[in-house]
Amino acid sequence: MARLLFISDLHLSPNTPELNQRFRGFLRGPAREAEALYILGDLFDAWIGDDDPSSFASQVKEQLAALTADTPVFFQQGNRDFLLGETFARETGVTLLPEEHVLHTPAGPWLLLHGDQLCTDDREYQQARKLLRSEAFLKQAMAMSIPRRREKAAEMRRMSGEATAAKAENIMDVNQQAVEETLLRHGLRQMIHGHTHRPATHEFLLDGQPARRVVLADWKKDAAFALSLDSRNGGLESLPIP
For the chain, first and last CA: distance in Å? Predict the structure, then answer.
């Protein structure tokens, strides 16, 4: 089948049993019928490291490993799972992608990214993002004990929620200039991303030529969707996940 599937922003955790079950069903059903699955970040609400010994982490790893035995799975880190790394990839069979990845299809190329790097109006977030992705912070975080990392992750989620509540909605969306500059840097006219929780297809002109930006849906208890891309003709479809 020539269908590629894209998902992001599931925010799975031990406290999201409905979402966890929906994801398990998705991996056993629609994902197995796809040519490939692309996870564009924030699969987890907080990933504290590949050495997480919890049953929740083990179950997700096992479910992904069962899928990758037959279907290629590609993973891009998001702002909630930037500590996910090569050990996770080895144990699950997923292929890690850089934060900006060009996907070539018979119907044309697409730029894939989580999307948070495009929210340049939120300068406070961009400063924090730079710090959290630094080698110094990653080394410091992984030197912490598992319980301490859990505490730190909970603290960061709380602070993020408070900061988000205090910001204007438009600041937390992507900046159109950043979108255009990113596409031009790659010589492309199409991108797929998540992060903003604002699913839509945006069409615009880039240097006088048609361009489009497709935003993935976040998953909720009562509604979840994957983006289906026909790699042969470029057709897009929103696929409900039962």
Answer: 20
pLDDT score for 1 = 56
Please tell me the distance from the alpha carbon of residue 11 to that of residue 41, in angstroms, as a whole number: 9
The half-sphere exposure of 210 on its side-chain side, counting CA atoms within 13 A, is: 3
Do the Cβ atoms of 6 and 229 come closer than 8 Å? yes
Q: What is the pLDDT of residues 134-170, one digit of tens each?
A: 999 999 999 999 999 999 899 888 887 777 776 787 7
Q: Could you give the CA distance from residue 30 to residue 4 in angstroms, rounded to a whole number?
A: 10
Per-residue burial over 79-88, b if 16 or more Cβ lie within 10 Å, else e, is: bbbbbbbeeb
- CA torsion sign, 162 to 167 to 168 to 171? negative
Between helices 55-68 and 17-28, what is the axis angle to 10°? 20
Query: Which of 220, 162, 229, 166 shows the shortest CA–CA distance to 192?
Result: 229
* Token output for 19: 């979402």
**Among 156, 15, 28, 30, which Cα is nearest to 83's?**
156
* CA angle, residues 185, 79, 100, in degrees to nearest 5: 20
Residue 68 dihedral angles phi and psi, to the nearest 5°: -70, -10
Task: Provide the 3-class DSSP secondary structure of residue 205.
Answer: strand
CA separation for the pair 192, 127 (Å, rounded): 24
